Model the fold of this input.
Amino acid sequence: MNDQELVERLRDSPELFAEVYERHYAAIKKYVLRRVLDYDIASDITSEVFIKALLKIGTFRWKGIPLIAWLYRIAGNEIAIYFSKQQYETMRLNDFAEFNNLPGSMFTDPADEKERWESELRRHKQFLVVHETIRSMPGHYQEAMSLRHFEGKSIKEISEILGKKEGTVKSLLSRGMEQLKKSLQETRDK
Amino acid sequence: MNDDQIEDLTVPDPHMNPNRGFMTAMANSKRSAALGVWLVVVPLFFLFCVLMKYFFHVDLRIFKIVEEFFASMDRDPVMHWLSPLLFMVFPLLSAALNAMAMMNVQWHGAERTAVVTVKVRVWNLLLLLVSLAIVGVIGLYLITENLKG
Done:
């Protein structure tokens, strides 16, 4: 079942959302982890992304943009909320009684996944340096640069996720790259 | 770092697996806090009036009116059931709701295990403590009154 068929069937069968979760959980979780670094915060944000997607799926209209791009956009918004407040309040699925009949398949993380993440992070020092530099940029640069350099997304994919024209994305990436190189140079000189 | 190193940056890529389990709060946090306020507002106001009159000796007419109202409630054969409801049952209910709002239950179907975690939420915690304080004060009063009698 492709994305379009899935979206159309979701309106009548909300339990199919579990399929959305299964397909895209890993990609979204990794994106959030690479942006916020903290495993527990990333878990909360990822849960929130899928809760919000579940609530909004009824109003999602197929426009040829992949479902994952929409999920990335929700994730980007939630990450921006976290960065602006430096704390994170989550909803809980139980807050919405009409979804109590969904098959339980969400939102638990074993302790060893956290350990794996922290161990991976320690092995990627260059990533941490670049991450810190990107983190100091304005929000729209952060998103574009993260999607390009952390997620390996193409210009077209980034424009679908951010809802911006490809020319705008190229410009963001070009200026973001200049800032990144300048900051890395300044760090080296210190 | 040069341009190629940035373009070819290796990023952490741990294995992620959506797990089979379910986590839910036992009660809605905001609704529990809102309901909790309504459940304790009357006994809290009564205790406030008692405190102002007997401890701080502030002699306002409103405090006398409130005290007489609740005393008359006790004397009324129909209304006398309202006091235990307002001063014990409602605060206990508020305490229970707000405690549940801070508790999350994780059910692991394969292991048939429920894991309960507590996430402190300021307003729920405040209402839990206020509710328990009300029950404590009223309970203590009832005990001392019984001992006297």
